[in-house]
Specification:
CATH class of the largest domain: Alpha Beta
Strand order of the largest sheet: 4-5-6-9-8-7
Oligomer: single chain
Number of strands: 10
Low-confidence stretches: 77-81, 86-93
Mean pLDDT: 85
Number of helices: 8
């Protein structure tokens, strides 16, 4: 069992250790996670600290609590496009697969919209850094997306304010420049009619429905690091999931 480091919150160290076990497959979907009592004994921490670590995993969508039974690993078969882009950048240094390319439409400082400020824990009216891009292949636009970063990140990562492409990938570059590592992400989705800008950028008919995905990345301290607001046209697959039916 790893030793507790005094420089980092204890509950996060426990949560990250369990998260890594889940992502490696050491703790498999449907398997029971150590209880609060067991974690407290193994790590030499209080029960409330152990409980907080399990709550962090629940917040990340990795485990679920079953009343009167325990805490269990959730199935993780969903492949999210944003997650795949970051993983591809780590492996290959490229964010787009063969046959796709991204065009940066705008970059720089802008007043954060209310929903962006809320997600990044910014005060209303705060100026943040944005990067807006459209991703295409031979058949046309695939997605229109905007990455948002707080002013502290914008100051330390100057390439974010430049409309040139960041070859290693935006989040990978931010991690390198700030020392803040992406730990986990959560996606929120809704469908609505496309705005005029989305209609033009995605080459859609007026009134078309689009899927909106807010992909919020947290760092190792559970602080928001990046918000990606992606817009997908109706004919593009955004998520794929496999599951047993028997």
């Amino acid at each position: 069992m790893p030793k507790i480091e005094e420089s980092r919150p204890k509950y996060l160290q426990i949560a990250h250790h369990l998260r890594d076990q889940i992502l490696r497959g050491d703790l498999r979907p449907g398997g029971e996670v150590p209880s609060e009592r067991q974690l407290a004994a193994d790590w030499g921490v209080s029960r409330p600290t152990a409980a907080r670590s399990l709550e962090a995993l629940r917040h990340q969508g990795l485990v679920e609590k079953r009343q009167g039974s325990g805490t269990y690993v959730r199935g993780l078969p969903v492949r999210r496009r944003a997650r795949e882009l970051h993983g591809r950048a780590d492996r290959t240094g490229r964010t787009c697969p063969p046959g796709e390319h991204a065009v940066i439409m705008s970059a720089g400082w802008a007043e954060a919209p209310d929903h962006v400020a809320t997600s990044l824990n910014l005060a209303p009216g705060t100026r943040a850094v944005h990067r807006r891009r459209v991703t295409k292949n031979d058949s046309g636009p695939i997605t229109l997306s905007t990455s948002w970063f707080g002013p502290d990140v914008g100051d330390r990562a100057p390439k974010l304010r430049d409309p040139e492409r960041i070859q290693e990938g935006t989040l990978t570059y931010v991690e390198h420049m700030t020392g803040r590592q992406g730990s986990y992400a959560e996606d929120r989705m809704c469908a609505r009619p496309a705005t005029e800008e989305e209609t033009a950028g995605l080459e859609l008919a007026p009134g078309s429905a689009v899927l909106i995905v807010h992909h919020l990345v947290h760092d190792l301290q559970d602080h928001p690091l990046e918000l990606v607001e992606a817009t997908y046209p109706p004919h593009r697959w955004t998520f794929a999931q496999g599951y047993p039916i028997g």
